[in-house]
Structures
1.
Amino acid sequence: MTSPLEQKKIKIAGPSVVTANRTWDGIVVYRTAAKSWSADLSEAAIVRNSDEAKALLAESVADDVGAIGPYIAPVQVGADGKVEPGNLREQIRRTGVTIGQPVQV
Amino acid sequence: MYAYDEIDRTLVNERVSEFRDQVKRRLSGELTEDEFKILRLQNGVYLQLHAYMFRVAIPYGTLASNQLRALAHVARKYDRGYGHFTTRQNIQFNWIKLAELPDALADLAEVGIHAMQTSGNNMRNVTSDQWAGVAPGEIEDPRIWSELIRQHTTLHPEFSFLPRKFKIAITASDHDRAAIKIHDIGLKLIKNEKGETGFEVLVGGGLGRTPFIGKTIKHFVHGRDILSYIEAILRVYNQYGRRDNIYKARIKILVHELGIEKFSREVEEEWQQIRNSSLQIDDEVVEDIRSRFTYPAYEKLPHMPDELRQAAADPDFEAWRKNSVAPHKVQGYSIVTISLKPIGAPPGDATAEQMDALADLADKYSFGEIRVGHEQNLALPHVAKRDLPALWKALDKLGLATPNVNLITDIIACPGLDYCSLANARSIPIAQELTRRFANHELANLIGRLHINISGCINACGHHHVGHIGILGVEKNGEEVYQITIGGRADESAALGNLIGPGVKFDEVADVVEDIVEAYLALRERPEELFMDTVKRLGVEPFKERVYATR
Ligand code: HEM
Ligand code: SF4
């Protein structure tokens, strides 16, 4: 997964969200339509073209105290409206490491 | 062990208060992330996929038992109950909260541990041989010089904003356990004809996107001149290093582009100007540092105690002893490597319970001292041979006696896509699967010394270029693909591996490694011919044929 940190141009191929890490504790968060952050992907604002994406990203970047390193990430939206991460990297960010941790939490 | 003086303690404590204030200002919005990033990086705080990551320095790989307990405490109180030992004598915590970091740092400061210069474009933690001070035949304890360089470079303004990160490693043994040839500067302690201590200086090693093996820039630099010589190298680097292009900013690129002759002429010129300055080190300074390293009061013990003779009848003990126990410079003692590579587990991870228990074992059996090596294993440096059987039993109970040190399952792997925001592909699950494939100890022993190194992207934190078998994760059309090299090595004969062919998919990697190993077993001339020797004798071709014939 080419790191989105190298994301230069904003070009989206399908439904996308803006994701980042919450500033005070670092957990994965998604930008919501209510201009806030949520740890729940199902609450994320979905954008479908690059203008929308640009606007959502700009608004997210401006909220620098809330979360850091925002970028646009692909999602898949099922027929039932269920939102899933669009690639392995985002899947891992959402569900955690794929390896089992030495100490279960 | 090394005892910090008042200056060090004050420095570490001041740093904690400073960082506490910076975090407070960040959380209140007074500092933006852009402003804060460089500050957090100077304190070892990265952002990974799921959380912040906190990297703590273990200077020259030496830990006291109370320091290991403090690391266990941080793992338990501020993280998820474990830590990850890395290839540069650091430990990383993967789940730390920014708001709690100042407290974690303060707890560590109480035992003299800090995270200064564990990230950012500065002089990083100076690393050394994890057997320093106890390896037979060593010129002298390389940690004395590591500490001297640490003191000189810590928070040194000239080295705090370099074109890129800068890493120094030091060894004092012929067998290089510190991988000095893949560091920006590698130092090998030697004696000249007059019996004076000095260094062979290597420069320009490094892996990453453009890997290079370090080259000797000077065959002998007297100990008293080592700071001025390093400073001269850094000045030339500071002056010419490519600040405009992150991919070309490491010193290895400069050395390569200028050529080692021109580069060394530049350094020489610079050096002549500063050599006789205050950078020249008085003997007293070295002696003062030397006196702060304490060594155990060793007993006079037999070479072969009864306890060891009796335990030798137990094949499980013997299997562990053969791979984990190494000769010590003092008769009757051994150096014991503790494998952090249990079958099926992430390489280099240790739980808080294991760290605490190991600290107790170090108190009981190793004069309270623990070492951290670049292979992501730990060591107890002063174990009386008579205690080996008891120590083994205790380690086994903790899951720390896997008898695989230096074998195929002793894998070095970076965090990869499970943790790292720069990753292209996962590393740890590949390592886990490989350890399961070669879990049979007889098989692993039959194969003999074989190092597998895995990185999840071209930054090469897992040193894949210098693995006997190197595995690099890349991304192709949204899928994880792995490129496999053979023939690399990280020791005194350091070499970069050669690609065996097109990349293979996640599910195929373990099969391919099995094929390579089967080919080796069939091709080797005798059981003592190590994998490396067979690759050297025959090249990549026969392995390539074997791997791709059926794929
Ligand atoms: C997950 C957080 C990490 C990040 C973001 C990270 C980032 C990087 C980057 C960007 C480089 C390349 C620097 C350059 O060539 O200029 C690098 C190199 C390196 N990293 Fe990491 N790293 C991480 C974890 C680790 C770990 C866990 C280890 C040890 C197991 C490690 C050991 C190294 C080493 C030894 C190099 C030097 C390779 C060379 O000589 O170029 N890093 N790291
Ligand atoms: S090699 Fe790449 S994936 Fe692995 S830790 Fe380093 S930066 Fe991350």
Note: The first strand of chain A starts at residue 16 and ends at 22.
2.
Amino acid sequence: MSSEGAPHFSSRDAVVCRGVGKTWAAGTKRAHNALTDIDLDVAPGEFVVFLGPSGCGKSTLLYLIAGLEDATEGQLWSFGDLVETPSPQRSLIFQETSLFPWLTVWENVSFGLSIRGASKEERRTVAAEALQRVGLKAAMDKRPDELSGGMRQRVAVARALAMRPKVLLMDEPFAALDVQTRARMQDFLLDVWRDSGASVLFVTHHIDEAVALADRVVVFTSRPGRIKTIVPIDMPRPRNLFSREAEALRIQLTDLLRDEVDRAFAEQEALTATA
Amino acid sequence: MAVVTRDSTPGAAAGASRPAAASRLMASMAGLDWLAKIWWTCLSISLFAGLWELCWALGWADEKLLPPPHIFLSNIAEQGRYFNTATRWQVGQSMTEGPSAFESVLITGAATTARVFVGLILASVLAIGVGVLVRYYRFFDRLVLPTITLLSPVSPIAWLPVAIFLFGIGNAPAIFMVVVALFFHMVLATINQIDTVNTNLINVARTMGASKAQIYARVIVPAILPGMLQVLRMNLFGAWMVVLVAESTGVGYGMGQVIMLARNTFNPSLVFFTIAVIGLLGFTFDWLLRLAQRRILYWLPDTAERLRVL
Ligand SMILES: Nc1ncnc2c1ncn2[C@@H]1O[C@H](COP(=O)(O)OP(=O)(O)OP(=O)(O)O)[C@@H](O)[C@H]1O
Ligand SMILES: [Mg+2]
């Protein structure tokens, strides 16, 4: 299969999507075309933010890149390999909490290592290190139920980092956090990103967040999701988010997004009216 | 009181090390809770017994047919003798030989309880095993599931002759009855539980490179445990029922047989005494299972408590 779809691009690219689309429940009455015609190249170490109206298929695209779902159109590659199954190289942080409730925080963080059969000491050290980075080392021996929503999401971040992935897929990881904590987490994420050299694909609804983090912002259209535009941001880091440049970007992204959200709403209303 | 408990839990979670005072307070309240529970249980039972006694006092309840608690509990020593299988079955032995009345009750109760227990364990292990295999191997699913679905609505009573054909008399048929009564339902319940496991949890394991076997062992089985224990508890009373039926039809000896004996000898006092013992045993068993549930499922929040404060 990989010989037939021989990559005609650099095999060093972290993620390559060619004509990727996804129809949920394909072939049934409830078939739903969530995503279509996605062409996207992500360089190693690049920070890409996905922005788009709710339901446009951002999470779906992350699932496809993670290899958790099969694309119904097109193909995806990661570092030259066809994406067919999930891989520890590509960690996904889910939109909803996904910690194992029966494991403690540190056991959750080191779950991937235990799959590989690492010793308990090694797992605890790695977990402590990863939790230190998200400021939750003190909560190591707690259970997920004892944490707040934001703390749980940070544990999920730590768990993904503990895998030392080359591609970090993050689905609105900071949506549940307050503004201050989110700003801290963004700084922390940028640190980690710089240290690890991993590519980050980050979904958010916050334009501020996109401006603060992204090398490139991918703006999606609504139903079915397509790439509307890709906005490069070449502001130097650390960024001044109150600069004129940042302000201009915010206005540009807000306009791009507003059109799509309006359209999505109109479509949804039309759908419910006919039904 | 309940409100305080609820508030202090997240608080204790947020602070890494809350002073010991808070936890001590909670412990003492747990103790109070405990006392209150016993108090309410006693009150509930006394109320029931009291009504019965009242009916007797007013002459509504015939003391020959519906002897009130003070009558059927008064001659425990005599009643207990009927529990002594040795004296019942062996010709030429006097009623006063062998274990004392109290010991007889204990022995008989323990025999019945042991059957329920063994049956429950066997049924759960088998059912969870088969349920997991059904979802694990497609081939096994196709091969086995139709039969299981077909047999699950069959009443356990219908299996009674089979139990006797296969195992004759003794422990085995009674245990077989418990297993057969629970197994099919529990297999279907296991499959249902597996199907409703949060896909995110499975996906997390998949992205970390877990194999299918690892996903089953480390994610699916722990995730279905709470539901399975719930199913087990709900089936516990069914197991008790079936064991009594099995014992009463001469499959074995035990509480069910004492009931049968009481019926055949027209001894209402003995019937009610046995019912009281069975009730007590079932209650204790359920309570122990609840304790075990809390132990095994340490990670689950106390939802009953949350509902109570609504
Ligand atoms: N497992 C699934 N089965 C069927 N349809 C799905 C599934 N997951 C998502 N969809 C559909 O695909 C579309 C895109 O969903 P997706 O979750 O990717 O959107 P999103 O852009 O992440 O939205 P949000 O910003 O609200 O998270 C939606 O219309 C949704 O109904
Ligand atoms: Mg989403």
Note: Residues 6 and 306 of chain B are 7 Å apart (CA to CA).
3.
Amino acid sequence: MSDATTQQEKFPFGIASVSIGEIERRVPPGEAPPLPPNNRLAFIGKSVPRFDARAKVTGASRFTVDVKLPGMLHGRLLRSPHPNARIVSIDTSAAERHPGVRAVHVVTDIVGRAVEQVPETDPPQPNGVRLPRALYAGAPIAAVAAVTPDAAAAALALIKVEYEVLPFVVDLEEARDPNAPVVFRSAVAGSGFAGGVAAGAEVAQQGNVRGPSRIGTRGDVTKGFAEAEVTVEGEYRTQVQTHCCMETHAAVADWHADGLTVYLSTQFTAGVRNELAAAFGLPRNRVRVLVDAMGGGFGSKSGAGTYVRAAIALSRAAGAPVRVVHDRHEEQVDSGNRPATFQRLKIGAHRDGRLSAISLYTYGTAGTATGAGVGNFAQATYECSNFDSEQYDVFINAGPACAMRGPGNTPGAFALEQAVDELAEKLNLDPLALRDRIDASPVRREERRIGAERIGWSRRHTPGADTGTIRRGIGVAQSLWGANVQTNASCEVRLMRDGSVELRSSVQDIGTGIRTVLAQVVAEELGLTPQAITLRIGDTDFPAGPPSYGSRTTASITPPARNAAYKIKQKLLEVAAPKLGVAAGALDLRDGRVFVRAEPARGLSFREAAALLRTDAISAFASRSDDYGGFRRAMGDAALAQNDLGGVQFAQVAVDTETGIIRVERVVAVQDCGRPINPEQIESQVQGGVLMGLSYALYEDRILDRPTGHVLNADLEHYKIAGPRETPEIDVVVLENYQGESATDAYGIAEPANIATAPAIANAVYNAIGVRLRQLPMTPAAVLAALGRAPYGG
Amino acid sequence: MLATSLAASAAVAEENAPLSIGPGAVAISLRVNGVVRTAEVPPHTTLAEALRGSLNLTGTKIGCDRGACSACTVWLDDIPVASCMVLAIDIGDRAVTTIEGLSRGDTLHPVQTAFIAHDAVQCGFCTPGMVMSCAALIARNPNPSLDDVKTAISGHLCRCGTYPHVFAATLAAAKAAKS
Ligand code: FES
Ligand code: FES
């Protein structure tokens, strides 16, 4: 990075609440100059009201489910009633003849599950087509498009499918048995797309068990444990959690003479565009993917699933746009989930707390997908030179999992953060003091300090010391998440001759507020108000933006937005310079004016300057450049920044020892995301992460029925998520952590905010009742059992 | 309930129409946001579907379609109800107010203003329903406590976790509405 084209610049460096110093970085050409800390900026770091809030509170926002096109048909999917079945034959003729039906489609490829589509031994259909097995109850089989939803539903009932019903397994433990029914009969390739762990393509597979992946293994754990003066060992179980997006998966596909347009509730317009272009043999510039308002994804809306392909196939066959929207049952069964896990975790330590060895053995199930591992949490959070992991995927006949908010690390933290607490107790150390010794991060140290003060850590009693029916406790846990960056992320900033400015990118606002954040960044650079910036996003006709998963949107798209705005600024100053009789370098932009820096009264309004443009508009394009300090790792279109993201959360709980009910009374969440751009929106997202974590800790559990293989609670009545009554007081603190890594130095927040909550609650419960709960969800029955008060005499 | 709803639907049907209706579409009229609107819908059409479909009022959202999430909350007269749990043909002459009818022209309802000011909106899918319930609360109780707000929206699900900001916004809106 120190070639002749780069130049040396000084950036603010450090945590604002500790001290801000300076760091020198070599910066590539074309980058906007270093940005001072937030307290010296007009809009960055201010809680500018969310741009689309007005549309959302008035019902004017257009979500995918609200899209109506002329002649639009209603599509529905036929789903397998069996958890494992071969399709012997399928007869769609009666459905095709049903009044109002315009197209029928038989599903030949299932998107999202592990790769085996059709076992070699399965014969083809009479027409030569080979159909995939239905590997879970709810697996898509066929689809119908009709003029009304009623006609589509009626036609589905007319599709005759002859199934050869096969033995199945839906229980994680049973599936590990070598004699269990086998889900995939041939070797599954590919790495873990449920995000837990990238089990390389070459791992072994026996029966339903695939692995091990030995992610992070280093040093010599045998030696490490031999040196240990204290060890702790525990077994932890976490359940399947479903994303429960309030807007179910939804698509409107329009196959037309020019190509394909898809309105889609998606986290990644550009990625889906590329995926669909390849799947349907179209050039990328003939495929357009759009999303305006988007009703929640949490990892489940990253790609184009089977239902999207079905909508497109139906639209092509019918010659009309087709809408396919999951109903709530479909959403809960077949739109992804967080894998269930088992973890056995052992930690060895010296008397002073230094860790000598960690060994982690896990298996879990992502249903018919891969990637049920527990991430890199145990491997990366604390200093320990001897680490060994052995992680397995177990296939069961259930809907494929996919990434869900902090995949891998969320169940991983539930185990490690309890084990570290247990270790602290054995060492007779305060849990925070132990973490101060084994956690090298200065950021986490400051987060512990702030959080401890806010929660009142000093009044924490010894575990189990509280008496009475309601017992209170306080617990802490940490979060760690890689700072992801999409290097394939671009945008364009345009200035029109009337002074209007807009930003264009395919990046989507999934409720995180990136519209507002981009307007703040562009406005800051151009000396305008954020409200003066028009945002054109969520459309692949604009430069390809990043995906909104992996907490990378802000990190990826705000630096190019600022750099593009900076180029516009320079062009505008050049145009204004002759008029003001000075060199462009003597000019600056602020408060809607171009002015002479040495003589601020002399200048032009922004509009007057824009009117001097030679052409009707000027445009600047920018892509994400590498982090100035270099990336830790680059992988294709994405990269990992040097510094991790994380946070420390504290929970205060009240446990009713008669009913077993755990109430979370208060959570303090201290998080970091580099330079915060919109504190209020960040607070919103952190609250969301805490609530999803609390809900995971106490309520959520997808239940598969062993006799039938069906999901018993595929709805929002019996699948309980935290509501207003379960919402504790949530105190959010966001660190300003300057690293001088990019034109904005801003990183993500969504996932790190979710990871620490469940273990913080678990540690608080232990502090309250003196008994550890190592299984999620921590139900009243589990609490009573832990207290030796099982209600049914158990 | 059944008697009134039959009477209500009879009122909009032909004079000597048969006693049974459907399965084809039937004509209904609905008083929505102060305007009488007519539509042809199959008799099993819920109010939520009728609003979103023929009446093109898509601000009302469907999250579960069975009374579990309250995303579809509208007012019948001044009572917030889950519009996915009532049939359009059963509404009769009760006044329906949807999120589109809450503001007065460009002037937002105080709850809407407060939702914007407190960032009580993330993805926004649950928001119209939340706003309708919170606005109904401050209409019937100008001095709500935090607990009252929690009760008023206890049936609402928000996966993005806007509840804390919704609490703050609603309490602030109640204050603003009084001054
Ligand atoms: S859509 Fe009516 S309650 Fe969920
Ligand atoms: S704001 Fe997304 S569901 Fe409530």
Note: DSSP finds six helices and five strands in chain B.
